[in-house]
Amino acid sequence: MTRPPTAAQRRLIEAADPVTGRVKGTPAQLAALVQRGLAFRHPRPPHDHFLTSAGRRVREAEPEPAEPAEPQAPSGTGVFAARVGGEAAPPAAGPARLREVRSAWQGMLELRRMTNPDGATDRPCGWERSHLVQAAALALEAAGHTPAGPGTEGGYRVRATPQPEAVAVYEPDGGALRACAATLERAGWQAGEYTEPRTRARYLLASPRRV
Predict the structure, then answer these.
(1) Residue 72 vs residue 180, higher pLDDT
(2) How many domains, the chain?
(3) Does 68 score more than 70 pLDDT?
(4) Is the Cβ–Cβ distance between 49 and 33 less than 8 Å?
(5) Quick one: pLDDT band at residue 65, thresholds 50, 70, 90?
(6) Is 55:11 a contact under the CB 8 Å cutoff?
(7) How is the chain split among helix, strand and coil, in percent rounded to 5?
(8) Which domain, by its residues, includes 26?
């Protein structure tokens, strides 16, 4: 079995970019992560290092009991999360949030470039297909759409659906709903407008485009 990462290596892994998995460290530290299969060196300049699937699993796993206890951020903090709408405690709006959203979207485009076989950035990548709600919400928030606040009617809400590779986007304002559809289509999604049979509410059914 592969030895677990050292405390120093775990800190590097946990500090990796939450979207792209880009990891920073000294050449020796990065080489050690590559040797253990926890990171890889991208073949294209500037040859940055990124977490592998194994490295991401280490970051998402609970700390090993044998590891020295380290201060942990409260649940839900310290890692960027796009607003899906209707959160009980949404992140504070303002210039800092705008910068975070912009940085996360640029990171997503870079992840597309690195992981799509043809290097395309106009089409969702594997990470987005496995995190549909967050990916769609990031595209909307990055384009300046307003998410619904707690207990409010206006603003978008992105929700999972029983359909594979599809999310539902709700927005009570018809014009805003159509604007959400246009944004998602520009971001590489397919979006169609539908009506719920019981409530007659209009919504989008959106899925990542493959070609």
Answers:
(1) 180
(2) 2
(3) no
(4) yes
(5) very low
(6) no
(7) 35, 15, 50
(8) 7-60
